[in-house]
Amino acid sequence: MALSCRNETEHKKQTDPQHAVVTGDEKKDTAGVLLTENKNMQLGGSDSVDLSAVHTTNESNATTKVKFNELVVVINGMAIFDAEKMERIQKDTAEIEAEVGETIEGRTISISSEQLIGLNIEQRYETSVTIMNEGPHCDLIDWEHFNSNWKSLKQNSNGQFVGDKYTEEDYNTFPEVSMDELKQTVKEQCGEDWFKLLEKTNSPREYPCAISISRYFLRIVGKRKDNGQKVTKLIIIKTPMGC
Prior knowledge:
With 243 residues, this protein is mainly beta.
């Protein structure tokens, strides 16, 4: 099954290349393939596609709060889907889904805790391949990825951490893969019609293929005041690769 691009104020029915109707509500198949709608792609030289602009919209007024037993993390300027889910206390790992055009890059992040000291945040990102079809696209989120190294975030004058920003080169970083393997994966996970789109494609960076950031990771580390024990929490931010 495919997944349509979600928008809080607009829930339109769409039809994928296999004629399966999908709605504005999130749906996901067992292969983890996402079908969303891309309206912001930019073509560069040699028909390559730059999707970095999708994640660089103006900062919103939204505040996302993630609650753990030992601490609370507040991300300013990033809206997410299913915000009510974050009202619950999360376990050691919390997964959230950013709204279309939202990003952690450049956003301020605050941590509050009465139990921990020496708090620090690290950030990394993951890229994936997406296949586009003049609107809808199929994201291979359960296939090959590039995973960046962890990088400690800097703090501003107010003591808030600031999300790291990435370049177009970062967005396009991806391991070398076989096009035959890529095409076979698309055939298996996206369907025959998507597979046919790649008949003359020679690179995962050549339209209708593109590479972009699919997830951000925040790792929060601190020590308990009472016994010095290390505590680690992880926030995984899924981000739409288009729309």
